[in-house]
Design goal:
Two copies of one chain form a homodimer. The first copy, chain A, contains 15 helices and 19 strands. Chain A has 574 residues and is α/β, with parallel strands linked by helices. In chain A, helix 4 packs across helix 10. Chain A has a ten-stranded mixed β-sheet with strand order 8-7-6-5-9-1-10-12-2-13, sandwiched between helices.
């Protein structure tokens, strides 16, 4: 890392705000990752050691049987661990998928995913982070994103992203011999080191930013007043002095594609071309097709594969005029949810055709709670819990989640054990026989939940979760209790209310009314242990760099946006 | 009816408040019910005729096939229509039952009912009335309880109940040759004509009042401060002038039993005995045993049977000290829900043993939304919808409901069509070949939904429901839209908001913001039609009489309560 970048990183970490960044800096090359000896233990947060002290013996016994089970699978599977196929659906909280009865309440159906859920295990208590980027980072790295300063990113240029120093599941599995591919949403930064093909994926096709750019920062959305104050062609600029205020998605990079550790290329956009809702639809269709292509190509290889498909739909903007209405609900969101369900059904049946259904572990889940700001125009409505995307109430962080691994995971099972999205990192590494690739030099939050998957309910290994909103610790869950810290001011945690989530899933009736009885003190102790641990293993900066550097065919208008970005950085605002 | 009772009835209808009622009045004898010629049409509310005009042809075609199906069943079943077993669970709204995933959210399981739901049809859009009495009246009579002044009753003595002039499903099925029995909660009045064995049941075992008396109006509950201001032995009466203020459940009649048209007998209470939580538990166990006994006895007869079992649990008061904790939730309500689930499982497996599973149509459902006042001490929490018992938001009137009829109703099916509890009256009469017994001289709100049960989703015949709270029309549902009338002031309905229930099941974002576009006018027209229809078929009074007359073995303390009741009636308050 250059000295300048190192300084940037230090400043970022301190203030979470960018200052100057020279356009001249160069991005460092991808570092190789070492394998860690299996006998060096993974570094954990304090709370895990408390569980381990009480359960070590039972876990060791279970682990021995699990090792035998995994070895037997491998032997029967031509010496290979299972393929991994991870489908992460955007802004799907709890209740949208997997239940025809709940479908009915809102007037639509998701038969493909419902059937998939019946064929596998329903993880009824899956926690994510409260929005897209942090959940995806937690999955890829097995770490709460606060640890690598990836609690949030944005639509506009940012000049940062997932640091190269992070070790992703793609890297872990790749090092263990897997072929890897990523299709669809990524949303972990606009700098080269943060992109999937620089983070362990052999092939990646993805948009640089998120759907805000693609769905509502365009002319169609502005014309239909889905978005206001976006774009530069839908108002009279009589008084405009600063024409950079209004984002125009056509000037930002859209979808790119590339292979491992090589620069990427923007696809399907010509210089001067406008971005439209129709192009967004094409992009979605293309990712669906590419997911299917990858499935075929990867299945044809000798090595096991790790494929992830992160659709952009159901998130959408204005309705395309050619659309058919196929649900009683009729909302744009629900209609697209139904579309995605059909697409996923198509991929699952392709797996049957390819003969890889039985030796592939498939996870389908949402990435965070509902985007409640869309209620109720689109049918985008919270179910069961309170709050939605962006909040750390259960409505923001509880999602539908289903795992299928025929013959190993019991079909039709439901588990109420706690699970965090970061656990998938550690668990899938274990299942792939790649635990030695999990870093030993930093805290790993993800817990190995293989026992839960294979042995069923009550075999989970987690009874807590820390819920951060970007960089603020807003809530702490332990068993069925949840401390909600107003404003994330942890110095006031001793005064904070806590809730019984079984009796009060909507967090409306605090049970901590009598301070001094059994109140917040145990939670305060948890928080203290958590922050003490951070003193030894401090949070690290994000990857810093030049936005879009590493894209071969930048359009002139895009180059101009980068120049504006650096111009604004250099103004004497500080 | 005597002249005095007739005057009483007229006054009741006008003011909904009782005035004087002489202790000398005698109760009229049970009237016989006429059979109605099949070609005389059932009288409907206005809205139904609008649907009929548009769908008559399709419905007639369906009905012809249904008649053939029912005839074929009868022929294969020794010439008999199916038995009917109706299980109505108290204060169960939507989400508690039938889904292991939703179970998990709250930390318990209901495996028996979940399996039952899998074996039959889930009615995902079942509406009830907003509390116990009116829902039960709507089921028994096929009429909104506002029509017979049964929108509410109470724990204390009331001197009224379901009128003898009402025709119940038990009478309809009895006239068609069914043996009939009722076990458990009834809660439709304290006067003889209102009791199940005077309303068509050959045998009935039931408490006169509801669980308020049995669970919290007792010494155990008062001592544990579950209830405050109840009972007369748990405070210092230094300043007491009116010792009748505080209800003592030991002085009210508890459980009674009797046979058709004969006076009943209080069971398991001796003069001077106190009512306790342990006795409440015994009562629950007894009803469970009696339900099983009835199942055996009825199955042994030649005639088909109509059995209803309306458990008192899960509603409960203080925890009995001997109780085991069997769920992670641990709340009194949830523990009892699990107990009832096991009991119902026992009855269902008894049906298998008796060989009557295939020729019996079984309905299991809740009677109204959750009793949210109990949240969250008991784990009694609203799911998905807003509000609970006593409110006409969906949370008050949407319930879990499952129907099983092997070979005729598709196992594992889910229907999103609208259904109202009163529809069961008309539908079960049809299935039993007893439609000719449905009255033709009054409005029947219940719609024949046999086509929905046999043909599945989209074959429902209802697209509206009027939601009364006691005597006030508070909301009107049409398709997915719902008008909520503040305070039930229908003269302001044109200004009222309406909601899209698919997109906004919690009724938080009205879509009727632009009056004049398409607003409340169509709802106002519906309301006008509904009230015009009432001019021709006005609401009728309840059955009026002397409380407890018709109980053979009244205890002295109970006689004193009746005397106090009449004394208070005679005070010159008016």
């Amino acid at each position: 890392m250059t000295k300048l970048l190192r300084m940037e990183a230090a400043m970022f970490q301190k203030t979470r705000v960018f200052f100057s960044l020279s356009a001249a800096v160069s991005v460092i090359a991808t570092m190789g990752h070492q394998a860690f000896a299996q006998d060096v233990p993974i570094v954990r947060d304090a709370e895990y050691y408390i569980l381990e002290a009480q359960n070590a013996e039972r876990w060791a016994e279970e682990d021995q049987v699990i090792d035998e089970t995994l070895a037997a699978f491998k032997e029967a599977n031509e010496g290979k661990p299972p393929n991994v196929f991870y489908i992460l659906i955007d802004d799907i909280g709890f209740g949208d998928l997997g239940s025809e009865t709940l479908n009915s309440i809102r007037g639509y159906k998701t038969p493909s995913i419902n059937q998939f859920a019946d064929e596998g295990m329903r993880l009824a208590r899956m926690y994510t982070e409260p929005s897209c980027t942090p959940t995806r980072v937690a999955f890829m790295t097995g770490r709460h994103p606060v640890r690598n300063s990836m609690g949030n990113t944005q639509v506009e240029l940012a000049g940062f992203g997932l640091a190269d120093a992070e070790v992703t599941l793609a890297e872990v599995l790749s090092d263990a011999g897997y072929n890897t591919a990523h299709i669809g949403k990524w949303h972990m930064g606009d700098v080269r080191q943060s992109w999937p093909n620089f983070q362990g994926f052999d092939f990646a096709a993805f948009p640089i930013h998120q759907q805000g750019q693609l769905t509502i920062y365009n002319d169609d959305a502005a014309n239909e007043e889905v978005s206001i104050g976006i774009g530069d062609n839908n108002y009279d600029d009589l008084f405009t002095l600063d024409r950079w205020l209004r984002t125009d998605s056509a000037r930002l990079v859209t979808g790119v594609e590339g292979v491992r550790n090589k620069d990427v290329r923007e696809v399907h956009m010509e210089p001067g071309e406008r971005w439209t809702e129709a192009k967004y639809h094409e992009m979605n269709v293309r990712y669906q097709e590419q997911a299917k292509e990858q499935l075929r190509e990867l299945a044809a290889q000798d090595a096991p594969f790790f494929l992830q498909y992160w659709p952009l739909y159901p998130l959408t903007g204005p309705r395309t005029t050619t659309e058919e209405y196929t649900t009683p609900n009729g909302g744009t969101y629900v209609e697209k949810m139904k579309l995605v369900d059909g697409w996923i059904g198509d991929l699952l049946s392709e797996m049957e055709t390819l003969g890889i259904a039985d030796n592939t572990i498939v996870v389908i889940m949402g990435d965070n709670g509902h985007f409640t700001k869309y209620s109720p125009q689109s049918g985008y409505t919270p179910m069961v819990f309170r709050g939605g995307k962006g909040s750390t109430t259960e409505g923001g962080v509880r999602v539908d989640a289903f795992v299928r691994w025929p013959n190993l995971i019991e079909a039709g099972s439901v588990v109420g054990d706690m699970f965090h999205v970061s656990d998938l990192f550690t668990t899938l590494a274990r299942v792939a026989g790649a635990t030695s690739g999990v870093p030993r030099d930093r805290i790993i939050d993800g817990i190995d939940q293989t026992s839960l998957l294979l042995n069923g309910e009550s075999h989970g290994r987690r009874d807590y979760v820390f819920l951060y909103n970007i960089h603020k610790l807003e809530a702490v869950v332990k068993e069925q209790f949840k401390l909600a810290i107003p404003g994330g001011n942890i110095e006031n945690a001793i005064l904070a209310d806590f809730y019984d989530l079984y009796r009060d899933p909507q967090e409306r009736y605090p049970v901590s009314t009598e301070i001094g009885a059994w109140g917040s003190a145990k939670f305060v102790n948890m928080i203290q242990r958590h922050f003490q641990r951070k003193e030894k293993y401090p949070d690290s900066p994000p990857g810093i760099g030049v936005p879009y550097e590493g894209i071969i065919n930048l359009r002139p208008e895009t180059v101009a946006v980068v120049e504006e970005f650096f111009f604004m950085r250099q103004t004497p605002a500080r």
